[in-house]
C-alpha cells in the first residue's frame, strides 16, 4: 500500500518515511531501535522533512526493507512517466503544426532548426 503514497510528488521525505513506517506497523521507537538511534532522531526526520545523509537514507531503507528510491522519490519509473508525458505533449503539438498552412509550418521548422543549431543538436 505504501507504493501508492510514493506516486505523489507532493510528499516530503519525512512524510514518505512516516507513511512507510506506519504501513510496516512500526512506531518511531521501534524504528529507532532497529537503527540504533533515538526516537527523537526519527521524529526529526519525519517532522523536519529534511533528507538525511545518503548513508542514513540507505540504513533507513534497509531497516524498512524497501528501496532507497521509495524514500527519495528518485525512481526511474517516475522519470520514465515524465518522459512519456513530455513525448505525448510534443506529439500533440506536431498534430497542431500539421493543421497549419505550409508557410507557417516552414517558419516553425526554421525556428526549430535554428534552436537546434544554437544548442549543437542535429
Describe the protein.
This protein has 122 residues and is an all-alpha fold. It folds into two domains: 2-72, 434 Repressor (Amino-terminal Domain); 76-118. Helix content is 75%, strand content 0%. It is built from eight helices and no strands. The chain has helices at residues 2-6, 13-23, 28-35, 39-48, 54-64, 68-72, 76-99, 102-118. α2 (13-23) crosses α4 (39-48) and α3 (28-35) crosses α4. The protein is elongated, with a radius of gyration of 23 Å. Mean pLDDT is 83; it is low at 1-8.
Topology overview:
Blueprint: H1 2-6, H2 13-23, H3 28-35, H4 39-48, H5 54-64, H6 68-72, H7 76-99, H8 102-118
Helix pairs in contact: 2-4, 3-4
Compact overview of the structure:
The protein contains 8 helices and no strands. The chain has 122 residues and is an all-alpha fold.
Principal-axes geometry comes out as elongated
Instruction: Give the uncertain stretches in residue-range form.
Output: 1-8
Distance between the termini: 45 Å
Specify the structural class.
mainly alpha
Mean pLDDT over the full residue set: 83
Keywords:
mainly alpha; 434 Repressor (Amino-terminal Domain); 8 helices; single chain; 75% helix; 122 residues; 2 domains
Amino acid at each position: 500500500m505504501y507504493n501508492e503514497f510514493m506516486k505523489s510528488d507532493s510528499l516530503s521525505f519525512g512524510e514518505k518515511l512516516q507513511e512507510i513506517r506506519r504501513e510496516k506497523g512500526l512506531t518511531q521507537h521501534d524504528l529507532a531501535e532497529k537503527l540504533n538511534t533515538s526516537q527523537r532522531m526519527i521524529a526529526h526526520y519525519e517532522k523536519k522533512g529534511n533528507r538525511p545523509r545518503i548513508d542514513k537514507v540507505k540504513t533507513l531503507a534497509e531497516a524498512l526493507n524497501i528501496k532507497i528510491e521509495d524514500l527519495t522519490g528518485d525512481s526511474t519509473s517516475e522519470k520514465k512517466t515524465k518522459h512519456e508525458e513530455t513525448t505525448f505533449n510534443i506529439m500533440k503539438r506536431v498534430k497542431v503544426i500539421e493543421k497549419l498552412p505550409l508557410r507557417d509550418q516552414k517558419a516553425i521548422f526554421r525556428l526549430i532548426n535554428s534552436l537546434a543549431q544554437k544548442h549543437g543538436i542535429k
